[in-house]
Amino acid sequence: MIKRSLFALSKPRLTYDLLDTSVQSADEIAVPGSLTLLLPEKIDSAKKALIGPGDAVKKGQKLKLYDDSIPYVLSPVAGTIKGFDSYSDDFGNAATYILVKPDPSAKGDDQWAQTDLVQTLEFAADYLGQIPGALPVSTLTNPNYNIRTIVVTGADTDILCDTCQFVCTAYAGLMVAGAKILKAITRADRICITVPENLSAQVDLDGFNVLRTSDTYPSNLPAMVMKDHLGKELSPGATPEDEGVCFIRPEALVSLARTYETGQPVFDKIITLIDKGGKRCRVKATIGTPISKIFSCFNVQINERDRIIIGGPMRGYATYTVHHPVVPDMDTIIVQDRDVVPELSDNACVNCGECIRVCPANIPVNLLVRYLEANLYEEAADRFDLESCIECGLCGYVCRARIPLYQYIRLGKHELLTLRENA
């Protein structure tokens, strides 16, 4: 929702959406005939792969490309590998997708039946990095971070989204159990949870330090929660992890509790689908399921030039294929009709100043974008606060010239990091 003042110089006000209580449960989708698993590692033709077409896999089996590989995925089903190939993410980074054909008659991985699920970070890093909710094990095990505070994002970080609120209310008991396990594993001093201040649903949050957040966007973003509730303002280029704080989805806690309770990994991801008419549907789909299967189950027709957004409208990203799979950190899918998709342009900045007025970090975005367009990333950071951006997307939302400012800034940060790593 947006509210505009009669005064031209005032800021537009975007508000978060509260939980849609009319959608009280998630419809479970059957496992499709083929699953696509994304592995953040590029194929190296000089190495001998550990997996190949025709190989049998068991449910819960860890799949890696090479002997010295660190990234892995767990197969959500027992079946056969159909093949694997390269793909590029939205920054052009090379990675790998693995196609698995399920075999309902095959058995699961005996390793899970024989393994004692010890409550340690090492075990979580080895086997639980791909559970629904995307448990941030790489952050929790990073020796450069001293994580003392964990913040559960019970308040969704983007407008229109309410998946995190749904998980908190529908699975409160499991979330509390998962929080206790996580606290024991990490030895964190405290676990907080963000909750919308106007949320009417009653949720038992025993053991959590509750942070009531404003309904005004972007108050639920990590940088804003750090500043408004934890009293820590991030310096340019710093992350919450640098300050000993880790943000985590509530579904990761639910998945953690279910895994230790059943002795088996879980793979069913909860997603909110918002169709072209704005109708919400709650979905429970196996990781690796093509999103086309979700569209088919809810009769959502995808036409040429329709836009599919993974995430919310402010911070999400567009995917250009209906074959994009469900992944552990996917909470929301929005489908926009081609007739209502806002147009972007390569027009020059008109210096209206709207982006500066709306920026919560007080960045001179109108000057910053000129340096980003010229690929001057170090200068953009030194002179115009590129690294201070909290990536809320408000600048792009208000831009009268229709410049994709948010995308420029995300790309600029990525390129700056790449330059420094290669220096």
UniProtKB/TrEMBL annotation:
It comes from the Bacteria. Keywords: Iron, Iron-sulfur, Metal-binding. GO terms for cellular component: membrane. Gene3D superfamilies: 3.30.70.20. Residues 340-370, 380-409 form the 4Fe-4S ferredoxin-type domain. This is 4Fe-4S dicluster domain-containing protein. GO terms for molecular function: 4 iron, 4 sulfur cluster binding; electron transfer activity; metal ion binding. InterPro entries: 4Fe4S_Fe-S-bd, 4Fe4S_Fe_S_CS, Ion_transpt_RnfC/RsxC, Nuo51_FMN-bd_sf. It holds the Pfam family Fer4_10.
